[in-house]
Amino acid sequence: MKNILDRDADSGAIDGEKFVVRRLEGELQQKLQRTEEELSRLEKRASLPQWLGTIVASFPIVGFLSFIFALMKLLKAEEPLTGTLKTTMIVIASVGGGLIAISVAFCIFGGIRRRRFYRSGEYRIMRERQEKVEAECREFLGVPESASEIDAFSRQTKIKNGQKKVYTFVSKFSYINVPVLVYRDEFSLYVAVFSAVLKIPFDAAPRLERIERRTAFYGWNKDTGLDFGRYKQYKIRTNNTGAYTIKPLFALRFFAEGEEYEFVVPAYEYETLSRLTGQTA
Fold first, then answer.
1. Which residues 6+ apart lie within 8 Å of 267 measured at CB?
2. Average per-residue pLDDT in the chain?
């Protein structure tokens, strides 16, 4: 199965190329690319280094196992431990508890850092610049004012040794969260993203399916924080790598020329996708 928004890291081509009906060209496309790159560099500054997150991600497991090991040794000893052995078990238990505390503090600090960044004046100015360019692109592509902006999930891919590989970041179920514009006419659903408009015909019999797994994704595109308003009910979490996690996902799946495709969105976009397609899950 192919995600229509999965994107090749080298060429920029998406797996849904056959569904593209309109595309940006020339100077306007370059202008959009420059603003996206500037915003991406700015957002990276808000995240803690990924290598550090990967290391700290192991702390809860190591810390828990160390703490339990030392505690069981202390509790199950036939005679009270004394001397060096007792001291060693206490140190192991303390280190285990410390690693757990560090991982919790790391998550809290990362969340505070991201929230401050997205509320900063620098980020707002950059977003305003990007929105102006996006408005120009929207007009060029013929996207109607009635189109709804939603989040959708994409992955970055690369051809290696003749095989397509997915950049999995945290796990094979991790995604990049991208804002898209969706609208419909009598015959098709349209998705405007990555400088192009994709057309999913309703005669391809698309069906909306619920995916019951907690999935990691990168990027928060809403002006409202994930702990506020209507997003609070979805219990979106953050992890040690700087990613967000959510459950469930919804996928609009359909067949074209003998292959199965999907368009994947987080739970908080289900109602919009369901309304536009007439499908439920």
1. 234, 246, 247, 248, 249, 250
2. 82
